[in-house]
Specification:
By secondary structure, the chain is an alpha+beta fold. The protein has helices spanning about 15-25, 30-50, 75-85, 155, 225-235, 255-265, 280-295, 325-335, and strands at about 95-100, 105, 115-125, 135-145, 165-170, 175-180, 185-190, 195-200, 210-215, 245, 265-270, 300, 320-325. Helix content is about 30%, strand content about 20%. The strands form 2 sheets. An 8-stranded mixed beta sheet has the order 2-1-3-4-5-6-7-8, with helices on both faces. It has a 5-stranded mixed beta sheet with strand order 10-9-11-13-12, with helices on both faces. The longest helix has 20 residues, at about 30-50. The structure holds 2,5-anhydro-1,6-di-O-phosphono-D-mannitol and magnesium ion. 2,5-anhydro-1,6-di-O-phosphono-D-mannitol binds near residues 99 and 251.
């Protein structure tokens, strides 16, 4: 018999990767497999709708109703509810919270409460949908801190360093699922012909330093002088340090951070005179991305302290975000702390 396996050596599905990851941890209960599988199913359902986004009018739908009389949901509402419904009955979660909902999302009474907490941004960058620009879903998993029953605010308001898994899904020219359970960051690309995510980016390691910066420079006039000086520094000519850096800004955080992970460099959403804490949400955006970037060898702060060490005090609080390659983050901190001018 041939020693060849029926599959190409590289064909590793997301499911297989998760199961093998769990097997390497004695005592694992398989709950993570269920949880991440639920997220990947939700992602595929959202992708199906995202790919139809431009066809809404052609298919005879109006703004409010589809042809069967159902109210058409905005894509971000659809994504929000699809993720909730894909996860509410699995028995792994005790509570969820999403960027789209003011309050906690409780598990329906007829389903069991589990030991994990799920936080998510259902459709990050949704302002980009109509221009066919990459958008995505970001998620974050914590272990509950209360003993049993329905999850509470205490279970949700944990520091990012307590995350046990995080990930994002990119709806771009292809669809990707990127996740970490603390042991490396792994990326999977959907093969639409079989409907499976296949391992395409194993153990992503960020370059120690890049030559790209990513920031909404339209806000420059509102930044603190230290922030203005840092960006000016990146634009100065200096061959040795690879300056001037290139500027890239998609305006979908998930896409900007994904590029930063692969190519290196820095992404900033600082506070400014109008929005002292910037725009991004600590629990749904900054923390999961900081967890992933750190697992890939990068770093993240709010300008003062490590993102993952910020104690959240409310569900939707915002925090400035600086995230990227270790060396770029070191230099940014020097400017922000006034050690360089
Ligand atoms: P959202 O689309 O989930 O509300 O997230 C906010 C988005 C981020 O994806 C993106 O990085 C940022 O807003 C862009 O903001 P701005 O237009 O101020 O640059
Ligand atoms: Mg967002």
């Amino acid at each position: 018999m041939s020693s060849q396996t029926p599959f190409p050596a590289k064909l590793i599905t997301l499911e297989r990767h998760i199961i093998e990851g769990e097997r390497s941890h004695p005592g694992a209960t398989g709950e993570f497999s269920g949880l991440l599988h639920g997220m990947s199913l939700a992602a595929k359902l959202v992708w199906r709708e995202v790919t139809k986004a431009g066809l809404v009018n052609i298919l005879g739908r109006t703004d409010r109703m589809n042809i069967s009389g159902d109210v058409i949901k905005k894509l971000d509402e659809f994504a929000d509810q699809t993720i909730y419904k894909a996860m509410d009955h699995l028995g792994h979660l005790c509570v969820m919270a999403s960027e789209e909902n003011e309050d906690l999302l409780h598990i329906p009474e007829n389903y069991p409460n589990g030991k994990y907490v799920l936080l998510y941004d259902p459709l990050d960058g949704s302002g980009n949908i109509d221009a066919n620009v990459t958008i995505g879903t970001i998620f974050s998993v914590y272990r509950r801190v209360t003993a049993s029953g329905p999850g509470t605010m205490e279970d949700v308001l944990q520091q990012g360093n307590q995350q046990v898994a995080a990930g994002y899904v990119l709806f771009g020219s292809s669809m990707m699922f990127v996740y970490s359970t603390g042991h490396g960051v792994h990326g999977f690309t959907l093969d639409p012909s079989v409907g499976e995510f296949l391992l395409s980016h194993e153990n992503i390691q960020m370059p120690r330093k890049g030559t790209i910066y990513s920031v909404n420079e339209g806000n420059e006039g509102r930044w603190a002088p230290a922030m203005q000086r840092y960006i000016r520094y990146l634009k100065e000519e200096d061959k040795e340090t690879g300056r001037p850096y290139s500027s890239r800004y998609v305006g979908s955080l998930v896409a900007d951070v994904h590029r930063t992970m692969l190519y290196g460099g820095i992404y900033c959403y600082p506070g400014d005179t109008k929005n002292p804490n910037g725009k991004l949400r600590l629990m749904y955006e900054n923390n999961p991305l900081a967890y992933l970037v750190e697992a890939a060898g990068g770093a993240s702060t709010n300008g003062e302290k490590r993102t993952l060490d910020i104690q959240p005090t409310s569900l939707h609080e915002r925090a400035p975000l600086f995230i990227g390659s270790a060396e770029d983050m070191r230099i940014a901190q020097e400017f922000l702390h006034g050690k360089r001018t």
